[in-house]
Amino acid sequence: MEWKFQSAEELTTALRAGEVTSAELTDEAIARIEREDKAINAICVPGFDRARAAARDADQARARGEDRPLLGIPVTVKESFNMAGLPTTWGMPQHRDFVPAEDAVQVSRLKAAGAVVLGKTNVPLGLQDIQSFNEFYGTTNNPWDHDRTSGGSSGGSAAALASGFGALSIGSDLAGSLRTPAHFCGIYAHKPTVGLAATRGMVPPPAPALPVDLDLAVAGPMARTARDLTLLLDVMAGPDPLTHGMAYEVKLPPARHERLGDFRVLVIEDHPVIPTGAAVRAGVNRVADALADGGARVERYSPLFPDLTESATLYTQLLFSSTVARFPVEAYEQLQANAAGLSADDRSLDAARLRAMVFTHRDWLAVYDRRERHRHGWRQLFAEFDAVVCPITPTPAFPHDHDPDLLGRRIDIDGAGYPYFDQLVWAGVATMPGLPATAVPTGRSDEGLPVGVQLIGPAFEDRTPLRLAELLEQTLGGFQAPSY
Prior knowledge:
Layout: H1 8-17, H2 22-40, E1 43-46, H3 48-63, E2 74-78, H4 105-112, E3 116-121, E4 133-134, E5 138-139, E6 141-142, E7 145-149, H5 155-162, E8 168-173, H6 179-185, E9 188-191, E10 218-223, H7 226-236, E11 264-267, H8 278-293, E12 297-299, H9 308-323, H10 329-340, H11 349-356, H12 361-381, E13 387-390, E14 410-413, E15 416-419, H13 425-431, E16 437-444, E17 450-456, H14 463-476
Parallel strand pairs: 2-3, 2-8, 11-12, 11-13
Antiparallel strand pairs: 1-3, 4-5, 6-7, 8-10, 9-10, 9-16, 13-17, 14-15, 16-17
Helix pairs in contact: 2-3, 5-6, 7-14, 9-11, 9-12, 9-13
Protein name: Amidase
InterPro entries: Amidase_CS (IPR020556), Amidase_dom (IPR023631), AS_sf (IPR036928), FAAH2 (IPR052739)
Domain Amidase: 24-464
């Protein structure tokens, strides 16, 4: 029997029944990677000898009667997470020799749960793109169409899962980096509530791995089924043991509902900043129809829904003010000069990006206060609704675009061009207020490319969008393996 597209849950059942060993699963996965990853380039740092040793240890542990949540399950890890003894570069060639001495918190939790780590997956340079390519490790291709991107920055993990290279992966999300690759590759991903999963050890080299509370970025699970997302989130969730973990543990509330017909869902398909492509719009409507057919209360408008234009501006300001914080003085001074040359009437996102790059602390605090008002608006919305369904990006996976001028790139939406980074506004709907969001595949476009949506839920009620994702998977069919 081939195990490559089995879920972690199914593999665990087989391991418990003695139908297969972890060593066999691991050898099969390694053989598949060695045979098929030349065309995909998802696994940039293989750790096959370590994986085989971990698999043997898992089989011995099971023989002793142990039964941990991921015992013997082959998985992958995004390259940006530190793994002791393996390089962490974030795609930057100058750090090719940086080898951390300690595992990231999430890697430690994977290992403690019994997972077998096959290797690390590819990322964009500095994690700062919606694609996954860099000079050091090369380009990760979409398993559905090798001429298209797998997404970024967790694109290597998404491509690995869609190709059957392990049952689970961990990634991170600041600008849709879990959700966009999931949407492009036809898998599931979950962006947790900000702060729910500790991120220590996911840090650009050679910086020390300190227990910092990140403002927007999260670590989260990726899988081929919605139930596997919950399984992996339960392993990942919890504060850093060096700080908040000394005082408290996480106990997530249960999902608000178990039946599809009990959910109250707001469906949003249009954004005032950028149009929604026909393929993505069709995916949103497939989900809306499935919800309605299942008896859920589905609404297309609510006066409680926060203003999307202001949301996009706030997200852009928070995102770009942080990305340039450590730029060299000369580059920062040039940005200041460029921002000073903007017209006072220019309220475009391009202008917001440039102004945010030279924010003062006073500027940032003003944006922070406006974000808190948005968060309160979301609380009011979720008193009336259980989840919001909306796009992840405006299009399915687009062709590789390696133009070094990122701000000069364009994204094609049904034949018209738009600023490349404007597509991030949908990711920012959940990221700016720190809400949980689950990426769910909804089928394929007319070109045969995967299309997904995100299910946004209330803060720290991550189990609510995850449960809704499970119910939609039963209705829509979930992951489909690419034909290649």
